[in-house]
């Protein structure tokens, strides 16, 4: 996926990452090998109530990706296609877990292409090990002090414990 004429090939992997999971990390690691620069862009999804602030999510991602030299962590509050132009990126990376994900992502990719035909979207299939995994599921498990060590990077596991410490729901 690297350009032939010495131009830097920049891709953006957008998401809410609330929190980043091992499924996200799988996509980040694989995409970082395909592009000269991968920008992991945290967005504030207005349809969700985030557990972590945008800044906290950026810090967690920065820590979790510190071993990947060509990965940059950023955030944005605009249309993705506008952000792409601003960052001089030409490819959007999206992870796909299921057919349902694909249908949803195809609509978004088609809309982004309509808004800016210079921007391409590539879909990466999630490693089957993580095909069931979602940030929502991780938060649910962590909220009841369940073990999430196999689901998230260690830094995220600690952050989840800190967030939920003392907040366990009790059944009366």
TrEMBL record:
Cytidyltransferase-like domain location: 12-140
UniProt keyword Protein biosynthesis present: no
Site (Transition state stabilizer): 24
Localization, UniProt: Cytoplasm
Cofactor(s) annotated in UniProt: Mg(2+)
Main enzyme class: transferase
GO biological process: coenzyme A biosynthetic process
Protein residues bound to substrate: 16, 48, 80, 94
Keyword vocabulary terms for this entry: ATP-binding, Coenzyme A biosynthesis, Cytoplasm, Magnesium, Nucleotide-binding, Nucleotidyltransferase, Transferase
Catalysed reactions, as listed in the record: (R)-4'-phosphopantetheine + ATP + H(+) = 3'-dephospho-CoA + diphosphate
Residues binding ATP, per UniProt: 16-17, 24, 95-97, 105, 130-136
InterPro entries xrefs: Cyt_trans-like, PPAT, Rossmann-like_a/b/a_fold
EC numbers for this chain: 2.7.7.3
GO cellular-component term (any): cytoplasm
GO terms of molecular function: ATP binding; pantetheine-phosphate adenylyltransferase activity
Pathway: Cofactor biosynthesis; coenzyme A biosynthesis; CoA from (R)-pantothenate: step 4/5
Domain of life (superkingdom): Bacteria
Family to which the UniProt record says this protein belongs: Belongs to the bacterial CoaD family.
Reported function: Reversibly transfers an adenylyl group from ATP to 4'-phosphopantetheine, yielding dephospho-CoA (dPCoA) and pyrophosphate.
Subunit structure: Homohexamer.
Name by which UniProt lists this protein: Phosphopantetheine adenylyltransferase
């Amino acid at each position: 996926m690297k350009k032939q004429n010495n131009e830097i090939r920049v891709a953006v992997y957008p998401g809410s990452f609330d929190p980043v999971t091992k499924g996200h990390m799988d996509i980040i690691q694989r995409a970082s090998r395909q592009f000269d620069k991968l920008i992991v862009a945290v967005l504030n999804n207005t349809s969700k109530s985030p557990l972590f602030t945008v800044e906290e999510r950026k810090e967690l991602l920065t820590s979790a990706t510190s071993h990947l030299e060509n990965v940059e962590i950023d955030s944005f509050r605009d249309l993705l296609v506008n952000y792409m132009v601003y960052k001089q990126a030409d490819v959007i990376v999206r992870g796909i877990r299921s057919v349902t994900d694909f249908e949803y992502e195809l609509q978004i990719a088609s809309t982004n292409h309509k808004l800016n035909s210079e921007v391409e979207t590539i879909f990466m299939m999630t490693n089957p090990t993580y095909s069931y995994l979602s940030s929502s599921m991780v938060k649910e498990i962590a909220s009841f002090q369940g073990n999430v060590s196999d689901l998230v990077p260690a830094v995220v596991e600690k952050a989840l414990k800190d967030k939920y410490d003392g907040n366990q729901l009790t059944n009366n």
